[in-house]
Each structure stands twice: as C-alpha cells, then as structure tokens.
Amino acid sequence: xxxxxxxxxxKQELPPPPGxxxxxxxxxxxxxxxxxxxxxxxxxxxxxxxxxxxxxxxxKLVENIxxxxxxxYEAAARKGxxxxxxARAATRWYVEDTDALGLGRPDVEPLATxxxxxxxxxxxxxxxxxxxxxxxxxxxxxxxAFPDYGVLSGADPDAMIAQEPSELKEDARDxxxxxxxxxxxxxxxxxxxxxxRPGWHIECSAMxxxxxxxxxxxxxxxxxxxxxxxxxxxxxxxxxxxxxxRTWAHNGMLRLDETKMSKSVxxxxxxxxxxxxxxxxxxxxxxxGAHYRNWIDFSEEAMDAAAAEAERFRNAFREQERASxxxxxxxxxxxxxxxxxxxxxxxxxxxxWRSSGRLDLLRRGLGIFGLETLVHDEEPPPELVALARSRxxxxxxxxxxxxxxxxxxxxxxxxxxxxLPNGFRLVRVR
Length: 430
Ligand code: ZN
Hints:
Layout: E1 2-5, E2 10-13, E3 21-25, H1 39-54, E4 59-63, H2 70-79, H3 83-99, H4 116-128, E5 132-135, E6 138-141, E7 175-180, E8 196-198, H5 200-212, E9 215-222, H6 226-239, E10 244-251, E11 254-256, H7 271-278, H8 280-288, E12 296-298, H9 300-318, H10 330-338, H11 343-355, H12 359-368, H13 382-396, H14 400-412, E13 415-420, E14 423-428
Helix pairs in contact: 2-3, 4-5, 5-6, 7-8, 8-9, 10-11, 11-12, 13-14
Bound molecules: zinc ion.
Zinc ion (ZN) is lined by residues 26, 204, 229.
C-alpha cells in the first residue's frame, strides 16, 4: 500500500500487513456545527482504516477533538456562555453529525482537556533542550534552534510571516506552546509557568504520542493545516527527539461555488444540512469521485448528480440486472486503491460492475466505502403496502381516478409503485 507523502513529495510504502499501522488525523475545533468540508478528512481516515483492515492490517486510528482553542473562547464570549460548556455541546454535535455518515468512529478520540499532563511534559522537555523558552508566563518554541523548520510546507522560514505577533517573543517566527491565562478566558490549568493553557500545535504533538507512541505511520488532515499547524507539530516532536509521523497524507479542500449555490444553501454548509438534503450515500459518492489529495468543487448540481448516481446503483440491485459485458476483476480494484488510494478509479470500476451485472463484486466493493446500504432495498412501511393494495383494488373495479390519487399519495411519502406482471413493488425514491 502506497500513500503520497507531503514531506518527501514521493509515494511512501506502508509496512506489509499486519503492520501494525498507527494513524493520527487532526479533528475539528469544537465551537459550532461542523462544515461539510470538515467531513472530508473524517471520511478519508475511516475509509483508509476499512481498506487496511480488508488487507489484513492491524490499525489504530486516533482523531483528536480540539476543545481548548482561541476560537472557542471567542465564540463562547459572543454567545455569552462559558467556553467549556460550548466545547462540550459542540463535541456532542460533532459526534452526532459524523455518526450520521455511518462509517463508525475512530479508535481513540482524545480531548485536549484530558491530555494536560502529557502536553506540559512535552513543553518541559523542549525547554530543557533549549528549543523553547518562558517569557512573561507564556512559553514559545525557538524556531532558530530547529534548522529543519519549513521542511514540510517548503516555505522559507525567514520569509514566513509572524504567527500571532507578541512583544514577549525573541523572534517574530516563534510560536506559542503555552499561553498565560487572560482576563476574558474562563478556563485555565496549572503549569510550571503559572496558570494558562496550551497552544493548539502542542496539543496534537502530545496527543499523537500519548496514543501512538514516539513514531507512527500516517499523519492526516486538511491541506490547509500543512502550515503552520503541521509544520509546528513536526518541529516540536522531531525537535524533542521523536521520529513522529513517517508519512504526511493531506487531503484537498472543498471549494464552494457560490454562484451555483442557492440562497437557501448559502455559503455556510453544516454537514447535517447536507446529509438531510441529499443523504449520506450521495455525499460519500461525491467524495469517492475525486482523489483525496485534489481540490473538489462542491455545488448543488454536483450533489444532485451524486444522488442520481446512488439511485443508479440501487436500481442495479432492484432490477437484478443480468446484463453482461467486459469488466475488470477484484484484483484491479485492489490495485487502484493500493496505489495512493485512488478512489475515483475504484468508482469507475464499481460502475463497470454495475453496468455489466457483476453484482457480487459490486456488493463487495460498495461495502468497503460504507455504501452497502445501496444494496438492500428498504422494506416499505405496512401502511404503504396497504395503500398499494387498495390501489390494486381500485384498478380492478375500474376506478382509475382513485388509483392515480393513491399513487400520488404514495409518491408524496417518498415511494414509487412499480407495476409487475403479477402485482407491484414499492421502491424508495428519496
Ligand atoms: Zn492537529
């Protein structure tokens, strides 16, 4: 199995099965309902775990929840509530919304608030090594003491703009590991440098090590995190003598085409609204159609097309199509996924199996991506079956007006009657 690595700019081979494989993905900062774009790294990480399990790997997937962050203090202040209350509520929303994707959960979902001893210990280690210094109750990473700074994002450290200007820094490029508590902040923890709270970057370095050890295989997250977040994680952990992540697998971002979005959708797209409108299968097929590293354009048209695609897969099983034609085999499907997880190529093979009636292969392939729900037709509720029977009776006595009225009534509830030579079938259409 090979994955593109942002650090070496080459594909890296994972160790052979059973591994074990440790994976750390950066999760959300919890202060509001998550955006549909936040679902992409979540979906990618869970698909990758499923695929590695399929290949006989022993996998541990850690995906953190950032519940200490400036954005949480700011959002809580705007709402006039405590920041820890907001973080707890938003953590519940995140779990609820990502549960609705139907892909299961990561093996460990650590919270920053539960990782303070490890975070403080890592900062102390960096101070002891001369890679960090205390200044006015804050602690900063000394970028000039880590010659490899910039290696991940490829940016020239001298050209980098200051990350949060402060007079307490020795050098504008330095970044905070620990921040002294401020009057408007309602949560703080004790440390050797006084009351305060950790910076975002050190939270991830400490949580990855706590759950995966000093070296692990894959570090994921959105491409927007490569600098400064991941550059800083790498500097902290490698500076402290850890090997840290061997492969950095970044996913591309979602681009919203605002001209194609209606007012009702707007440019803020909570995941749960997208799932409610188009369904989880449409969103998963939308993600499947692009390579994980690429940018992807989100629009209503693209989601409508993905929903239609889901329907084509469902129809293949409903009609038990027995068309025949050439198609590739399971080994071909394995080959495209083993080569940098090319899901867009895997999707093309799924369509070949659909159109050539290879339903056993199609069922197995869809299952890898949590799309086994496209295989089984939903049982119609008994009251709809009773309605459909009364339509049969109306037709039998020649009351076609009544029969049409019942058909429309059933359609309004999201089902369609398909007439068969000896009866009918109810099919869910939305
Ligand atoms: Zn992170």
